[in-house]
Amino acid sequence: MPQIKYYWEDFAVGQVRDLGTISPTREEIIAFASQFDPQPFHLDDEAARASVFGALSASGWHTCSMAMRLMVTNFLCETSSLGSPGLEGLKWLKPVYPGDTLRLQSTMLETKPMGKRPDVGMTRNLWEMFNQHGDKVLHMEGWGMFRRRTPAAPTP
Amino acid sequence: MPQIKYYWEDFAVGQVRDLGTISPTREEIIAFASQFDPQPFHLDDEAARASVFGALSASGWHTCSMAMRLMVTNFLCETSSLGSPGLEGLKWLKPVYPGDTLRLQSTMLETKPMGKRPDVGMTRNLWEMFNQHGDKVLHMEGWGMFRRRTPAAPTP
Questions:
Q1: Cβ-Cβ contacts under 8 Å, A32 against chain B
Q2: Is the confidence at residue A1, as pLDDT, over 60?
């Protein structure tokens, strides 16, 4: 298990992190869609051409999962992350096509102690994914829970 | 391609649909996490026992993807679905463990025409997933776009 480098106290509003790139192949897009999102426009070129997407594109859940992979590999694995209770919003803004290069960026929006657990803090992050043309394809705002380096003092 | 049974006009606020069940195996949970969410508590029993989840549990994105599979197979494939612009909220409420039986239920919250496209209508749905104990594990509110059976009359 990697060393923990960042605890909750190390996060500050406004911090921006570049979390690397990932590029899905046509085979990966079809494999994910076959298992989890078998809509014709994610599986078949002809159906995709007739769809609003214009060509074979990745399931939105595949895009989220690829963003998660970058988050874990390039950020969470070095942190005291305890998981996430969820997201406040998620937008699939543009289709993701085979061979696209997707770059993930995170911006810290808010940090706050977790009332009921003095050893845990919460963060609210903006996660944005851009393709090689600079178009934003994914926008998410989500909460994270991180262990604190030093638990909060008990409230009197 | 299956026959379209439901167009946008066929959806009404308050409709509740039972969209079947899905049960992830331990192998599927580890395979998904290895590819997309390699945090120790999704891969390794010992790390999982030491985590807030108490035992090996599925990536939240795996849970969402399983919900999508039920949506597509038991609902969207019979509709004029054109995809989704995103979600307004997503909550991972309880861990999902190997062998859990997850049931998906959808409730129609809102329907409205799509201003800029007379042939398309929007829906806002609540998606809820429950485990075999009746505990809600996933809560999502999301938008869908569906082709209309009859395009809206042009506004004068």
A1: 65
A2: no
Domains in chain B, ordered, with CATH? 8-147 (3.10.129.10)
Give the residue on A whose Cα is nearest the Cα of B93: A85
Neighbours of A156 (CB within 10 A): 3
* Chain A residues with CB within 8 Å of chain B CB: 1, 32, 35-41, 47, 51-53, 59-61, 64-66, 68-69, 72-73, 76-77, 81-93, 139, 145
Global ipTM = 0.95
Q: According to the 3-state scheme, what is the secondary structure of B73-122?
A: HHCHHHECECCCCEEEEEEECCCCCCCCCEEEEEEEEEEEECCCCCCEEE
Percent of chain B residues topping a pLDDT of 90: 90
pTM of the model: 0.95
